[in-house]
Amino acid sequence: MQTLQGQIRHLRKLYRCLFFIDLQPEEGEKVQVFFRCDDGSMNNDQFQDAYKTARLGDQVKIQVEPPHDPKEADRPYVVYQSCQPIVVLSAYKGSFVADSALKTGENKKETLRQWDGQHIDKASLNCKYWINQRRCPKMEACMFQHPVGEAYEQAREEWLKQRMDARKLNNHDPKDPHTNKKPHALRAIVFAKWILSTFQPSGQVLDIAGGKGEIAMVLSRGYGIPATVVEPQERKRPDYWYTRLLRLLRTSTWPFDVEPIYLHTMLDNAFVEDQAALINSASLFIGLHADQATEPIVDCICCCALLRIRPGEQTSSAKRQQTGIDHSRSCTVPV
Considering the entire predicted model, what is its pTM? Predict the structure, then answer.
């Protein structure tokens, strides 16, 4: 066993039981040091501690030894294995730009194995980095295709469809009774349509803990239903957020000019007292999450009068006026 001291120039976790670092010693060429817990050399806690300690740019001291598997040493660069904790000599301050990983050679494969076992020439396939981000880190050295113009748009559309089909296939459950599921991005629109068809609100809709207010925006600008978002934290709504909602609604302009109202406050007793007129005008209270954020829908609205009246006490008109709620109306809370 020997001790190495140097700077961590590259860090990569291959999977949950193996990670490696490229270390630049004070003298000589970079070396690779890997840590693993799937061979019994470390337990899981020791492995996780070592991984959490390793940080790009830090000057460290590591006790290393030859790889336990001789095949791991068959590289064009020096490889060590460590079973000991990493000692940090000095932490790097700032944003560190990592080096590229040490290369294993130029033995590039010209074919790619598909999920069905077939091998296809890389030259006939599109580069996934280019299709997804319109840029490729290898570019001229990349063996895949990089289409442009209309060919790029068509290739991207086909690529997205393939990804969606593969995701549906991987997540398919034959026992699932729901066969017409919508994408997760449409959840606000699907929920808004369900609200309209189920409750047919005739007045103000209060969206409790509504976040950015996607549901309120769809109800108001999409269907002309006035909506108010009660959300303590003020959320940003950039231009692309509105553009995305329009695209999901499959329209270029909003059908209605009704703007949602945003109230950055908690739904509590103070809100009930201060916003009595708003509460009385509300035809529906909605909440997507059955947690502490929307529990006050029941506690502060439906049970407000009961919380302020002692057991056995009659409800007087003065008590009803004190709560600020018209209790003759029904309270429907889809949570």
Answer: 0.47
